[in-house]
Amino acid sequence: MLRRRTVLSVSVSxxxxxxxxxxxxxxxxxxxxxxxxxxxxxxxVAQLQAKVKDVRRxxxxxxxxxxxxxxxxxxxxxxxxxxxxxxxxxxSADRAGVTVSRADVQKWRTTAERELGGPERLKAVWLQQxxxxxxxxxxxxxxxxxxxxxxxxxxxxxxxxxxxxxxxDNLARTSRAMGVDVNPRFGRWNDRRVILGETKDPWISHxxxxxQQA
Length: 214
Known about the structure:
By secondary structure, the chain is mainly α. It has 9 helices and 5 strands. The chain has a 3-stranded antiparallel β-sheet. It has a two-stranded antiparallel sheet with strand order 4-5. A hairpin with a 4-residue loop joins strand 4 (189-190) and strand 5.
């Protein structure tokens, strides 16, 4: 089975700014203002910081936000990992001819919302479990559908170790071909595992995770 992140518990706190890592735009000489360069395209520190702040804002507005914030001290690294992985996944899916439409995303989301008890419940569960900001729900659903579609296209059964290996190998080849250069302040990208440093593997089935909480 694919590894899941630990389900997070939550509480309100005024420590929003204190808990958000200070991400300055200076960078190193090779990465001025960039958190990473993927396939020749920059992920800027400002873009990363904006996404981190979105999550922190949502966490701070949760009834149990303080605990949520304290449990996600590595949020900037986890967020950058997701931003890089998304680009690699999109390239792999495109090369395999896998597409996901708005209708596909909406259909999946509607089903999940119905099973969980509504749109707000879905947002709350994903914020708690995966640190997904409310305005990133559609993008996260799209990622999941692309990953599922890619696995199906290449004949990788995600429930088996062999299927997981085949899927990782496919993404790893794309990652190497694209060239992922991360600002040393944020660690080193691992092409073989398709993750940033010691962050957790992004092989999260949000569908399964959400529905288990229903």
